[in-house]
Write a structure and sequence with these properties.
The complex is a heterotrimer of chains A (287), B (268) and C (321). Chain A is of the alpha/beta class and 287 residues long. Chain A has helices at residues 47-54, 85-90, 107-117, 122-135, 152-164, 182-198, 210-216, 234-237, 240-245, 252-264, 275-286, and strands spanning 3-13, 19-30, 36-40, 62-67, 70-73, 91-94, 170-174, 202-206, 219-224, 227-232. Chain A has eleven helices and ten strands. In chain A, strands 6-7-8-3-9-10 form a six-stranded mixed beta sheet, with helices on both faces. In chain A, helix 3 (107-117) packs parallel to helix 5 and helix 4 (122-135) crosses helix 5. Chain A is globular, with a radius of gyration of 20 Å. Chain B has helices spanning 43-50, 73-79, 96-106, 111-124, 140-153, 170-185, 197-200, 220-224, 227-232, 239-249, 255-266, and strands spanning 2-12, 18-28, 33-37, 58-63, 66-67, 80-83, 158-162, 189-194, 205-210, 213-219. In chain B, the strands form two sheets. A six-stranded mixed beta sheet of chain B has the order 6-7-8-3-9-10, sandwiched between helices. In chain B, helix 5 (140-153) runs parallel beside helix 6. Chain B starts with a strand and ends with a helix. Chain C is mainly alpha-helical and 321 residues long. Chain C has two domains: 15-207 and 285-320, no CATH class; 208-284, no CATH class. Chain C has a two-stranded antiparallel sheet. In chain C, helix 2 runs antiparallel to helix 7 (158-184) and helix 4 (62-86) packs antiparallel against helix 7. The two termini of chain C are 47 Å apart. The chains are: A alpha/beta (287), B alpha/beta (268), C mainly alpha (321).
Chain lengths: 287, 268, 321
């Protein structure tokens, strides 16, 4: 088990010292390889807080998180020998806004910044920058450009390349596609799927977009008011009961499929996780 | 009567490629016209030009018959309001009340009238209980609603929503769209600038931009179904219409299902 | 950053809260001047007593004010010690012979080491430190056996003691008064009050409305920027920036990795904000109506008269004495 949450609670305090429970009693396991997880929940449900526990940016106030064998807990916080950096190399976390991390003069230097912090040689870091810029779908001419003159979508890709260059085992992305146009969004999701498939990494995506959840995820985590209320496959998630209780949006594919089934008075057999599948099935049914 | 007329407008950012290239379009009073385009298509530049935040290198812009120039820009801003993308970067006041007041103070509205308008429009966007709240206590969607109230209070005829829902969660987005519908019913001209097709379905007309040019402008019905035009501008068909397109291509004829899919797409 | 107590508004309800910010600002200045002009020991004590009673009748938690004073305790303490040690004017009022013997030096070092080792566990740190200092003096005074290196004397002079006392009480009064102002006045009201009080500066071409606008926007964005800085730190920590450790060279890079995103985001923000303000018909320097108005009440007149009377009294007694 790469990441293991054991009854994790997290309370934070506002400026007046009033406590708020952001996470309550979370127990959860994430494997080192083979997972494609989406983490969903309304704003303020604790999604981002949960993600920040995955690479020890936050220390739980209750319970403990084991990350690649290192125990993170309130009691262990005082231990001076506890090194958090190796954990952050293994679990790469990409923040929502690339502007939070881009700072070097060139894209190449910025991508190389992470690996160098973990003791990778200058030369090796440059090699990785070259490799990763291609993986995120940009070409090497970008390496010498300034990260500040890029479009929003390009900045996102560069920030992801910067984390990938650390060669983490697990990649956690906080709302990676927000604000992108449909083409940019789909292209980026394909990049994540390839990272998962070709580089055999576990990918965790925080998102509000149920279409992403339904089309890509193998596993969904649903947060609600600090609690983990669902941990399972996306196909079972969107039952009428769950949709109502957890105020979920139904993915377009499922919504349209259900409407058509009802309209035509038919039942479409099998799963239709993407547009192509759904259209083929409808075609079959109508011919 | 046209409330906004844009004629042959071009704009280039300093030392950059052309952001808008010879754009012409006109928008009628009370109309709902969506401006669709990919990231970098020039759509936000267009909104900044309309309220005179940027000055076109060529072409003319008229609002309510007034030609935009340095001397008329204040008149034009009384008529056209913009809700911008980032909820945090347009919240000027220290509290919700102060923020709604900001535009009214600039227009030199008398205080009793100001108080009346603040309360009225705060109620209208369901933010009345939050009047004394500070921005960091509000969600993105709530901040955008405050921005809408701030513009409504100035009694503008036209509201541009410049990717106003891009940074919101689905609930916040739904609420903002709800206000677009209400306002349009009440006669306000609504101009959403977006790349979300779901935001465009309610509009009367759609203008598709690509690389600074008007690719196509037509009734919504025609654009929504136009796969080729949308895809050329990095956009995609709504799923029910994608299915309809698939049916057409594969020679599946089922008029009642097609009509059903059309209705489905309109209802989001 | 969570412990910043000075300058924070605390909601409450008392006559201090209902006073006009202009009154409070002017009264603050007048009373501060008065505190500086007081020369008599008795008057100083009375002033301290009056300000303390202002706290009590104004229903302001003394603890809050103490918390406000705490970060400045060291400064107060230091000026006090400095005056006592180095101001040697006036009569000697206290003489303490000291003996520097092998044993006394050893004992003094032992006391210091003990203090250093235990100070983290003691709650009243300042008091504990004071006791330690007294203990060290006691050691040098009383242990006069063993091998004697030298003798010395610790003297306190009248001037030193009284100057130390006046400086300290003045500082305490000033801090208390300004804490009262910030605790009882919303930043927006304070800003508005400041704008009005400074209005006469308009004559010398200083646009006080613009300054007030700048302050108000700063107030609005400080929490946002702090939040942002925190997120940037987390994002860079995710890339292996260890803000706890690192050599000097690393520290420089760490700070750059924080500052550059801060600047870029802030510029973007100010650009957006300028657009939003302009689009809502803001024109710098143009007259605006205002939602907030300040209303002068009888209470304000009374407070003003009292403050100026206090100042007059201090001046008169200074001249007469």
């Amino acid at each position: 088990m790469a990441i293991k949450f054991e009854r994790v609670g997290y309370e934070y305090q506002d400026i007046d010292g009033k406590g708020y429970l952001a996470l309550a009693d979370i127990t959860l396991n994430i494997n080192k390889t083979g997972e494609f997880i989406t983490l969903i929940g309304e704003t303020g449900s604790g999604k981002s807080t949960l993600a920040q526990h995955m690479n020890a940016l936050l220390t739980p106030t209750e319970g403990r998180v084991h990350i690649f064998g290192v125990k993170i807990s309130r009691e262990g916080k005082k231990d001076k020998n506890l090194k958090l950096n190796p954990i952050r190399q293994k679990v790469g976390l990409v923040f929502q806004f690339p502007e939070y991390q881009l700072f070097e003069e060139t894209v190449g230097n910025d991508i190389a910044f992470g690996p160098k912090n973990f003791g990778v040689s200058e030369k090796e870091a440059e090699e990785r920058a070259k490799k990763m810029i291609n993986i995120v779908g940009l070409d090497e001419s970008y390496l010498s450009r300034s990260p500040f003159n890029l479009s929003g979508g390009e900045k996102k890709r560069v920030s992801i390349a910067g984390i990938l260059a650390m060669e983490p085992d697990i990649l956690v992305l906080d709302e990676p596609t927000s604000g992108l146009d449909p083409l940019g969004r789909n292209a980026l999701l394909k990049v994540f799927y390839e990272i998962h498939q070709k580089l055999d990494k576990t990918v965790v995506i925080i998102t509000h977009d149920m279409n992403t959840v339904y089309e890509y995820a193998k596993r969904v985590l649903v947060m609600r008011e600090g609690n983990l209320v669902y941990d399972g496959a996306p196909t079972q998630l969107f039952s009428r009961k769950n949709v109502k209780n957890w105020n979920l949006d139904v993915p377009d594919i499922l919504k349209v499929r259900r409407a058509i089934e009802e309209k035509l008075g038919i039942t479409i057999e099998g799963e239709t996780r993407n547009k192509a599948d759904l259209m083929a099935k409808i075609g079959e049914a109508l011919r | 009567m046209s409330v906004i007329e844009i004629e042959n407008v071009s704009f280039t950012y300093h030392g950059d490629k052309r952001a808008l290239d010879n754009v012409s379009l006109s928008i009628e009073k009370g109309e709902w016209v969506s401006i669709l385009g990919h990231n970098g298509s020039g759509k936000s530049t267009l909104s900044k030009l309309i309220v005179g935040l940027l000055k076109p290198q060529s072409g003319t812009i008229r609002v309510d018959g007034i030609t935009l120039s340095a001397s008329t820009v204040r008149d034009i801003r009384k008529r056209v309001g913009i809700v911008f993308q980032n909820p945090d970067n347009q919240f000027v006041g220290v509290t919700v009340r102060d923020d709604i007041a900001f535009g009214l103070e600039n227009l030199q509205i008398e205080r009793p009238e100001m108080i009346e308008r603040i309360e009225h429009y705060a109620k209208k966007v369901d933010m009345y209980p939050y009047l004394n709240k500070e921005p960091h206590a509000l969600s993105g969607g709530q901040k955008q609603r405050v921005a809408i109230a701030g513009i409504l209070a100035m009694k503008t005829d036209v509201i541009i929503f410049d990717e106003a829902t891009a940074m919101l969660d689905p609930e916040g987005r739904e609420r903002v769209m709800e206000f677009m519908r209400t306002l349009n019913r009440e006669g306000t001209t609504i101009i959403p600038i977006t790349h979300e097709m779901k935001e465009a379905v309610m509009s009367d007309r759609i203008v598709v931009l690509k690389d600074g040019k008007v690719l196509k402008a037509d009734k919504s019905e025609n654009i929504l179904k136009d796969k080729e035009t949308l895809e050329r501008s990095n956009l995609e068909l709504l799923l029910p219409l994608e299915i309809m397109h698939y049916m057409n291509e594969n020679g599946i004829d089922n008029p009642s299902l097609k009509e059903f899919l059309w209705q489905l797409s309109l209802n989001g | 950053m969570k412990n910043i107590v000075i300058g924070r508004y605390v909601p409450g309800n008392s006559f201090l809260y209902s006073m006009d910010p202009r009154t409070k600002l002017i009264a603050l200045i007048v009373l501060m001047v008065a505190a500086f002009l007081i020369q008599s020991f008795a008057h100083m004590l009375v002033a301290l007593l009056l300000v303390t009673s202002l706290l009590i009748f104004g229903k302001i938690s003394v603890k809050r004010v103490y918390l406000g004073l705490r970060p400045l305790m060291f400064l107060l303490f230091f000026t006090f010690i400095f005056q006592i040690l180095f101001n040697q004017e006036g009569d000697e009022i206290f003489v303490l012979p000291l003996h520097y013997t092998a044993l006394s030096i050893f004992a003094a070092v032992a006391v210091a080491v003990f203090w250093f080792a235990t100070k983290k566990r003691v709650r009243f740190k300042l008091l504990y430190f004071l006791i330690t200092v007294v203990a060290i003096f006691a050691v040098f005074h009383f242990i006069d056996f063993g091998f004697l290196f030298a003798r010395g004397t610790f003297r306190v002079f009248e001037e030193g003691l009284s100057t130390a006392f006046f400086i300290m009480v003045r500082l305490i009064i000033i801090i208390m008064l300004s804490t009262i102002l910030t605790i009882t006045t919303k930043p927006t009201d304070l800003n508005l009050g400041l704008e009005r009080v400074l209005k006469p500066l308009g004559i010398v071409r200083i646009n006080t409305e613009e300054i007030a606008m700048i302050i108000s926007i700063a107030l609005r964005y400080i929490p946002t920027l702090l939040d942002e800085a925190n997120k940037i730190m987390l994002a860079q920590a995710s890339r292996g920036v260890d803000f706890q450790e690192g050599k000097l060279k690393d520290k420089v890079v760490q700070i750059i990795s924080l500052l550059v995103p801060m600047f870029i985001i802030s510029f973007q923000r100010s650009d957006d904000l300028a657009n939003a303000m302009e689009a809502r018909s803001f024109v710098p320097g143009q007259p605006r109506t205002r939602l907030h108005v300040l209303t002068w009440k009888r209470l304000d007149t009374v407070a003003m008269v009292v403050s100026f009377l206090a100042l007059t009294f201090v001046i008169v007694s200074r001249v007469v004495l």
